[in-house]
Amino acid sequence: MDVDLVVVGAGLFGLTVAQQAAELAGARVRIIDVRDHIGGNAYSYMDEETGAEIHKYGAHLFHTSNQRVWDYVNRFTEFTDYTHRVYTTHGGEVYPLPINLGTINQFFHAHYSPAQAQALIAGQAGELAGTDPENLNDKGISLIGRPLYEAFIKNYTAKQWQTDPSELPASIISRLPVRFNYDNRYFKDTWEGLPKDGYTAWFERMIADPRISVSLSTDFFDAGQPWNRDALAGRVPVVYTGPVDRYFDYRLGELKWRTVDFKERRYDEDDHFGCPVMNFSDPDVAYTRAIEFKNFNPERREAQNHERTVVWEEYSRFAGRGDEPYYPINTAQDRTLYNQYRQLAAAEPQVIFGGRLGTYAYYDMHQVINSALIAYDKQISPLLAK
Ligand code: FDA
Prior knowledge:
Elements: E1 5-8, H1 12-25, E2 29-32, E3 44-46, E4 53-55, E5 62-64, H2 67-73, E6 86-90, E7 93-97, H3 101-107, H4 114-125, H5 136-144, H6 146-161, E8 191-193, H7 199-206, E9 212-215, H8 229-232, E10 238-240, H9 244-247, E11 257-267, E12 277-280, E13 289-292, E14 309-318, E15 327-328, H10 332-346, E16 351-353, H11 355-358, H12 365-385
Parallel strand pairs: 1-2, 1-10, 2-9, 6-12, 10-16
Antiparallel strand pairs: 3-4, 5-8, 6-7, 11-14, 11-15, 12-13, 13-14
Helix pairs in contact: 1-12, 4-5, 5-6
Dihydroflavine-adenine dinucleotide (FDA) binds at residues 8-14, 32-35, 40-42, 57-62, 219-221, 241-242, 260, 326, 355-357, 363-366, 368.
Keywords: FAD, Flavoprotein, Isomerase
Family: Belongs to the UDP-galactopyranose/dTDP-fucopyranose mutase family.
Protein name: UDP-galactopyranose mutase
């Protein structure tokens, strides 16, 4: 075997550990991925007709306050000065999100000061004072009051979960951010932006090391290819970033996920929404939100097609085994099951489980890079030193 480490999954966890292993330990690394591209869920491609960069698995915006991660990613790409802002359509009007003083004053046709708005919302949230909300509906009302909850949260959440919020556990939300000023920057992080020449160029630079090789369209569980689970067992360290329950042949049961279906629409317009992300918080629109990819990169405007634009509508639903697992559902039952798998994983010789699928967790990109840097330092580097 001519490699020192096999990495299953070319997502950000896998790319980061591969890059670190080659650079810091001089390791020969083979990355395999069942898909036909690198980048995992953060992969994007250029749409020839419109000039938009399409994020194939849903909109990906980079943001972080972690200095180590920011320094690390800047080795491989420059970032644009894109600042994420989201709007929502409700009752035939467009409002800014997250809910802020602009949203509140537009909604109540008022000119409240920050203190007045705060007092108003506290009063409305007091409707259920003294009760301990058991379902998401009551929790939402107790956090921001009924009017704002019902306008902006209730139906959006019902679409996300395909379930009436009064039947969802209150534990799904711990807080609903409301800002009592006009700041509608979506993220609060120190740094944010999009990779200047696209996600794929960034990811290619991470593995531009002759010691790293990649096999695409290669399934770790396919016994017909040489980098499969049984052939590698105990022979070489493996970093596994696929689904943890799949690794153990679902022997304890299946972890539950939500997925998203994307419906593409093309319009004979330069700009359809005037913003990159438009949420739809009413039940008459079946999708939760729509992404207009051209608007993520205003700095490329000149080079884009001014006659056409592309929009992806997002429809959320529970995932079956053949679907892309996107958001862990994370009920108490799921967490118990995951902990059982985690014990099996801990006993697996020379296999490190990482990333969102390998640890049944939702991570943003900066979080998964951070966890990969730490996993390399603490778990993978000692294996390579042997
Ligand atoms: P990831 O899923 O990217 O990679 C795992 C890889 O393993 C995949 O490429 C898969 O094909 C491969 N694999 C699985 N099984 C295999 C097998 N049997 N054999 C071989 N390969 C196998 N984050 C953020 O910071 N900003 C954002 O705006 C968003 N937006 C966003 C939208 C949506 C809809 C989702 C679902 C997620 C986001 N994210 C995000 C999160 C982001 O996608 C996430 O942090 C990274 O993709 C996680 O990288 P991983 O390497 O853990 O998994």
